[in-house]
Known about the structure:
Distance between the termini: 51 Å
CATH topology: Gyrase A, domain 2
Number of helices: 8
Number of strands: 8
Low-confidence stretches: none
Strand content: 15-25%
CATH class: Alpha Beta
Shape: globular
Mean pLDDT: 94
Amino acid sequence: MTDDFEITFRSDVTVELVRASAQDADVVFAARVSTKGEQSLQDVDADAQRSAGLINYLMRDRHGSPFEHNSMTFYVQAPIFVFREWMRHRIASYNEESGRYRELRPVFYVPGPQRHLVQEGKPGQYVFVPGTPDQHAFVDEQTRAACEQAYAAYRRMLDAGIAREVARIVLPVTTYSSMYVTMNARSLMNFLSLRTKREDARFPSFPQREIEMAAEQMESHWARLMPLTHAAFEQNGRVAP
């Protein structure tokens, strides 16, 4: 352990809703323009509760475009390996903290005691099980040691005048980063259908736990903004329209 900086280890992820223009009425007026034309403007501020059946119909029959007329922006702090999985979803807008332009903080992810560590079974038919106390202690010890060594090397290169974009190459993917991600409800439902594991889902999903932790928080925010849409998503097997 070096003496000139303080390393922080975390076992969580942060998701904050920073801005939103999203409500159930957005789905209603967007859908009704197909049959009412300009008269659909009357539904912009209408009580969406009276149109719960319409929202459920759109979800059930997978008429997806009415669910796109809204926007949510989230601020996320998570380890880099989570972001690399996240950005496979080309259904959102991303802006991430840059290791070229700022000195990266010594904050690292280490699995918490509830994180299952051991994979059993072959690809496509595997499950994760908790692991022994010794295995948890071993993962914790090795992760902390590797991060401390890597960050010390990073700092030595910076102190030697090496550019930040070069010095960062020694840092592990368990380093925390931050980003803004903006998406609409349809995109979010697609993300949730793949990145949350639910027994009541029509199609099974097997997300890595760390990205699921972020997805669960995003879903909680969205459910408060658009409760009727979220309920229809649940009722119809968590399938994105």
